Amino acid sequence: MFRRTAGFFTVIFGVLLLTFLLIHLVPGDPVEVMLGESASTADREQLRTDLGLNQPLVQQFGHYLGKLAHGDLGQSIHTKTPIIELIKTRYPATVKLAVLSLIIGLAIGIPLGIYAALKANHWQDFLVTIVSVRFSAMPAFWLGPMLMLVFAVWLGWLPVSGMESHASIILPALTLGFGLSAILTRMTRTSMLEVLNEDFIRTARAKGLSENIVIFRHALRAALLPIITVVGLQMGSLLAGTVITETIFSWDGIGRLLVESIEKRDYPVTQACVLVVALSYVVVNFLTDLLYSKLDPRVRFGA
Amino acid sequence: MLKKSLLMMCVLLLAACGKPSPEVSEIHFAIAQAPLNLDPRYATDAASERVNRLIYQPLVDFDAASNPAPALASWHAVHDREYRFVLNKNRALFHHQTQLTAQDVKATYDSLMRLKDSPHVAEFANISTINAPDENTVEFHLKQADKHFPAKLIIGILPKGLIEKEHDFSHNPVGNGPLKFVGWQNKLTLERISDKQRIALQEVKDPTVRVLKLMRGEADLIQGDLPPELVKYLETKPEISLKTSIGANFSYLGLNMQDPVLRNLKVRQAIAYAIDRQAIIEKVMVRNTRVAGAILPPEHWAGNANLTPYDYNPGHARQLLQEAGVKLPFKLVYKTSTDAQRVRFATILQAQMRPAGIDLEISSLDWGTFFEDVKQGNFQLFGLTWVGIKTPEIYAKAFGSHNFPPNGFNRGRYTDVELDKLLTKEDWPAATQRIHAQLPYIPLWYEGQFAAMKKNISNYSPKPDGNWDDLTTIARLATKSSATISNHAY
Q1: For residues B431 and B428, what is the distance between their CA atoms, to the nearest angstrom?
Q2: A274 and A138 in a common domain
Q3: How far is CA A40 from CA A32, B116, B413, B464, in A?
Q4: What residues of chain B lie within 8 A of the CB of A28, using their CB?
Q5: A78 in a domain, yes or no?
Q6: Where do runs of H (alpha helix) occur along chain A?
Q7: Which residue in A272, A286, A294, A284 sits closest to A73, CA to CA?
Q8: Per CATH, which fold does B57-164 belong to?
Q9: What tens digit of pLDDT does each residue of A245-257 get?
Q10: Same domain for A45 and A181?
Q11: Cβ–Cβ of B408/A164 closer than 8 Å?
Q12: Chain A 230-269, CB below 8 Å of chain B: which residues?
């Protein structure tokens, strides 16, 4: 556990250092972004001094860490909004969308995967495989507008996009959830097929246990480990913000904020977003590892 | 497990679907890009400037020919370094119900000169002092004579009391314009002072989604930034009305004049002759798009209607390249953004230039990288549009020999002593003629403006520079169909 925690903080420090260096080494100048193309050299130099950009990089990094320790992420160059406020409004939106997408993905993917495994090499299995392959091949920029057309414009059941009503989250969550369910269906099917051929399943059936208990208590539990790996990775990606889906559905999440900040060269916002995304990945990985040990007692930290 | 999952999904769906919008009378305007900053001292993006025109009022605005015209005040030059402005007697109150006075004007421009991180600071560096001798009079004293000075006073006026309290105008603007700020949570809501009509501006980046929102009734109005096929699709819809106008925003190809091949005038002429502007305008542009000759359109007071367009002539272009001693095919890298319409133009240009012997390689970059490359001079050819340009000083900033970035917009690093003289003399017809002949850029077109709206929306028309001034008059007709639409709106 100690090694894990130490690793966690090492990764975070590495991310901080890397994002700081990347932002300061890529072409472009925050002062120019602020003052535009007509400012005098004297004004530029004055602002550069005021912002501490003339100081050595080590000193700037130390200053950045000091501010970070006090929860100060700076402010957006363009909107002058404190970045912590941007993160506070954008990140929960992404988490909400990610969690609902994951629920949809799990709710469709795992039952369908189990069903396909139980009906392996029958027409039902082929049908599930075809549908899941189709869904995994549909990009969000196509599936999103199609869902809008059907459920919003033709049927009039749901809003096209935006965040005004609770219903607004359904279409983006379905767009992400369908793609995720296709991956989970394939993974669950493969994993279940392997487990169903194991001796302990044959033993359970020979003992006369009901099929439901064999499938859900014995087989699924054993098959869950690779599924959790995939879920962990997918959740990390979802929490990093799904730029295309967020953009199409006008969903004000962290992914959209990150991409917009890169486009506008809003360096402090980019830096903060990368930090949050990296933290999300690290935390999700950490939780995934914890879940491993719960599901399989053979997996122990530090072992 | 399957049953539980399905049950959970149904509950979520039901919970989510059961809330229709309470704001049925709001007019919804779906925009491609949300404003970045509602403090006029910081705003530079088009969306912020368009909204700020509605919330605040400047001292000076422009008439149809882009001459400076009185807005909050009329003026006269006391001498060449002093201007006196007298505020209109019937000026509106600030939205927090205080009277706008000369002190507010002085405080606004004083604060602007003090700000160290405003992109507008350089514009006002020539101001020496500002006096407000009485409630209605403001005097600007300049360091150097500037006869175009009034045209620069287009920053919205802020209340002095709030400036002193360091009020956050960026997110909570207070002006004395015809619309006042209500709130900004996912959408920007404004309220018209005259009749309390609320207007909500919501950013919807994807053009297809903007059209779907209009069709669905979630948006009442969209303007510009649509590919022509979507505009044509909307034209077929009986519930949508489409209005167009000529445009004044100038699209062009920028050339790097430090490139050894592009420095040759014949090569630049060859590129100009290798583009079939008329075909592009007819096939892939919205209605009312016009072939352009100079940054300022012919109807501008400093416009030049006598510039002969470069017609498509790939044979002549090829001949010019051969005369210039360029080995064919001539490879040229064209940088553009990742915007779908821009990439489409690039592929059309590539096809049109091929018969002329130009092998155009397209380099499509994210906006930040692309614009950074343009400013750094790291390009051969790029495509951009000048938006909202009102004064002819742009020619000096864009082509003056001393205006290379970061001291101006001469991104092509063009030097021309002859042109510098004409710019100094402010001989705009001769200067635009010289630029047109020397081709430090390749003029393309002024893209037509259009707005699409539900049939029950009236009193709104697009404007040549794309501003949203008609939000001061827009109205929703109370019809049976609009009530039906509103009931569906979320």
Answers
A1: 5
A2: yes
A3: 11, 11, 18, 32
A4: 368, 372
A5: no
A6: 2-25, 30-35, 41-50, 57-69, 83-118, 123-137, 140-147, 170-196, 199-206, 211-212, 220-239, 243-248, 254-263, 267-295
A7: A272
A8: Dipeptide-binding Protein; domain 1 (3.90.76)
A9: 998 999 999 999 9
A10: no
A11: no
A12: 247-250, 252, 262-265
A3 and A302 Cβ atoms separated by less than 8 Å: yes
Query: How far B187 CA lies from chain A's nearest CA (Å)?
Result: 9
CB contact under 8 A, A35 and B121: yes
Q: Which residues of A touch B13 (CB under 8 A)?
A: 170
The CATH number of domain B250-446 is 1.10.150.130? no
Question: Residue A74 domain-assigned?
Answer: no
Range of the domain at A101: 87-300
Query: Min CA distance, A214 vs chain B (Å)?
Result: 14
CATH of residue A93's domain is: 1.10.3720.10
State the nearest Cα–Cα gap between B237 and chain A, in angstroms. 14
Query: Are A209 and A237 in the same domain?
Result: yes
Q: In Å, what is the CA distance from B70 to each residue of A31, B88, B178, B391?
A: 34, 9, 16, 16
Asked if residue A36 and residue A92 are part of one domain, the reply reads no
Q: Establish if A244 belongs to a structural domain.
A: yes
Question: CB-based burial of residue A239 (10 Å sphere; 0-12 exposed, 13-18 middle, 19+ buried)?
Answer: buried
User: What is the C-alpha separation between B216 and B485, in angstroms, rounded?
Assistant: 8
* B3 in contact with chain A, both atoms CB, cutoff 8 A: no
Which pLDDT band, with edges at 50, 70 and 90, does A38 fall under? confident
Interchain contact A75–B (C-beta under 8 A): no
Rounded to 5 degrees, what are φ and ψ at B379?
-165, 165
One domain, residues A65 and A94? no
Nearest Cβ partner for B1 among A111, A156, A265: A111
| Of B39, B16, B11, B35, residue with least CA distance to B168 | B39
Q: Is residue A77 part of a domain?
A: no
The total number of structural domains that make up chain A: 2
Domain boundaries, chain B: 20-37+177-246+449-476, 57-164, 250-446
Q: Is A118 at the interface with chain B, CB within 8 A?
A: no
Residues A144 and A230 in one domain: yes
Residue listed under structure tokens 């393309």: B444
The verdict on a CB contact (< 8 Å) between B406 and A252 is: no
A142 and A248, same domain (yes or no): yes
Q: Which fold has domain B20-37+177-246+449-476?
A: D-Maltodextrin-Binding Protein; domain 2 (3.40.190)
Chain A residues with CB inside 8 Å of B44's CB? 36
Q: Which of B117, B213, B488 sits opposite A47 (nearest CB)?
A: B117
Taking contacts as CB-CB distances below 8 angstroms, the residues of chain A near B394 are: none
Q: Digits of tens for pLDDT over chain B (490 positions)?
A: 444 544 455 444 544 444 444 444 899 999 999 999 999 999 988 999 999 999 999 999 999 899 999 999 999 999 999 999 999 999 999 999 999 999 999 999 999 998 888 888 888 989 999 999 999 999 999 999 998 999 999 999 999 999 999 999 999 999 999 999 999 988 999 999 999 999 999 999 999 999 999 999 999 999 988 988 899 899 999 999 999 999 999 999 999 999 999 999 999 999 999 999 999 999 889 889 999 999 999 999 999 999 999 999 999 999 999 999 999 999 999 999 988 889 999 999 999 999 999 999 999 998 888 988 998 899 999 999 999 899 999 999 999 999 988 788 999 999 999 999 999 999 999 999 999 999 999 999 999 999 999 999 999 999 999 999 999 999 998 754 443 333 333 3
Task: Kindly determine whether residue B187 and residue A111, on different chains, have CB atoms separated by under 8 Å.
Answer: no
Q: What is the ipTM of this complex?
A: 0.80
